[in-house]
Write a structure and sequence with these properties.
Helix content: 40-55%
Strand order of the largest sheet: 1-2-3-7-6
Number of strands: 7
Oligomer: single chain
Length: 399
């Protein structure tokens, strides 16, 4: 018996035209365009500048109003006094009065602008290079230099001046600033913290952890990176491939901006906006200032081994103090007499510092045991009493 007969059915070819004719027209809903997650986060492509290097004002910007002229005059005064303080501190290292001093000459606009953007009850978290910022905040210069003289870890009371101890380890202050800012916000206060950061510190884990924590918990903290182009001897090109350090904020959802760090007007305007952003409850803000340290990393460094002298000279033409002075003179807000008066004040400030730093400090050996623990351990108490007994025995022997 053979196989059953199967009738072949011709194949039906359907063309797109036939489908369109046979089926009613259907419209698919338009795919919504997803919002750009970087909107409002990325910095401008070029650093913000409101003054040319010669002090000529650039066209005004509605989004960055220039600070009041009274504030700029005060900024000039503090920058001049700060530069003289910096020079005197450098001299003190050569005289053996300081163990080390990291100069911030050339970064005066950043040092003073950050302080002026804050309220007195805001908090500052400085690095070892922020001595000028601390004196601009009104802290006694001898107390500021106490750390660098080796007397105490911190010569001032942080809770009184709302300023954390100067931080020598790189970037650890980023986490501290985020924690304090969050704590203040949690308690219903509108305190803002500002953490100074060097460009080298952005390569440390604490920088990223601080940014991430602050962003997640909307901590009111401003991270202020002073990009002076070198982490000691390592140039910026060996630290990051990002277009600028300000772009590091976008990965954490932190808005950021970059600014000409030698333009005092722009620095103050950008930081004022950043502080207002944080105080309004919008979370952290990252600002990168493009600046340059004119001196070596510290007095123990030989910058000529890794910097071209022509590079240093090129930055002298961008002097922030001269730039602000030229601008104020052009507006009739500063004249020769006012400049001379500020210079005299700076010299008096340096002379007072020099005299007090030359006085030999009175040191109590028992102070070694203070502030080690909130509650001294039994071992520490035992050691302290041993030293006390030795001092008493020496006193009796001298008598």
């Amino acid at each position: 018996m053979g196989p059953p007969h199967v009738q072949e059915v011709p194949a039906v070819t359907t063309t797109p035209q036939a489908v369109r004719r046979a089926s009613p027209r259907t419209r698919r809903p338009a795919t919504p365009v997803a919002p750009d997650p970087t909107t409002g986060l990325l910095p401008q492509a070029e650093p913000v500048r409101l003054l040319d290097p010669d002090g000529t004002p650039l066209p005004p910007r509605a989004d960055l109003p220039a600070p009041p002229v009274e504030t700029l005059r005060e900024m000039y005064r503090r920058m001049v006094v700060g530069r003289r303080f910096d020079a005197q501190s450098t001299a003190l290292t050569k005289q053996g009065r300081l163990a080390v001093y990291p100069s911030s000459r050339g970064q005066e606009a950043c040092q003073v602008g950050a302080v002026l953007a804050l309220r007195d009850d805001d908090w500052v978290f400085p690095t070892y290079r922020e001595s000028m910022a601390l004196t601009a905040r009104g802290i006694d210069p001898v107390e500021v230099l106490t750390l660098l003289r080796g007397d105490w870890h911190c010569g001032y009371d942080p809770t009184v001046v709302r300023t954390a101890p100067q931080c020598t380890p790189l970037a650890t202050q980023c986490v501290h600033a985020a924690g304090l800012a969050y704590g203040e916000s949690y308690q219903g206060r509108d305190t803002v913290t500002l953490a100074f950061i060097g460009d080298g510190a952005t390569s440390e884990g604490d920088f990223h952890e601080g940014l991430n924590f602050a962003a997640v918990f909307k901590a009111p903290v401003v991270y202020f990176v002073q990009n002076n182009k070198y982490a000691i001897s390592v140039p910026l090109s060996r630290q990051t491939a990002a277009p600028s350090l300000a772009y590091k904020g976008v990965g954490y959802g932190v808005p950021s901006e970059q600014v000409d760090g030698n333009d005092p007007v722009a620095v103050l305007a950008v930081l004022t906006r950043a502080v207002a952003h944080a105080r309004a409850g919008h979370g952290p803000y990252l600002v990168e200032a493009h600046t340059y340290r004119m001196e070596a990393h510290t007095n123990a460094d030989d910058a000529s081994r890794y910097r071209d002298p022509d590079e240093v000279e090129a930055w002298r033409d961008r002097d922030p103090v001269a730039r602000l002075e030229a601008y104020l003179r052009s507006r009739g807000e500063l004249d020769d007499a006012a400049v001379a008066q500020v210079a005299a004040e700076a010299e008096a400030y340096a002379a007072d510092l020099r005299e007090r730093m030359h006085a030999q400090p009175v040191v109590d050996p028992l102070s070694l045991f203070e502030h080690v623990y909130a509650e001294p351990t039994p071992q520490l108490v035992e050691q302290r009493e041993m030293v006390r007994a030795e001092l008493a025995a020496d006193a009796e022997g001298d008598a």
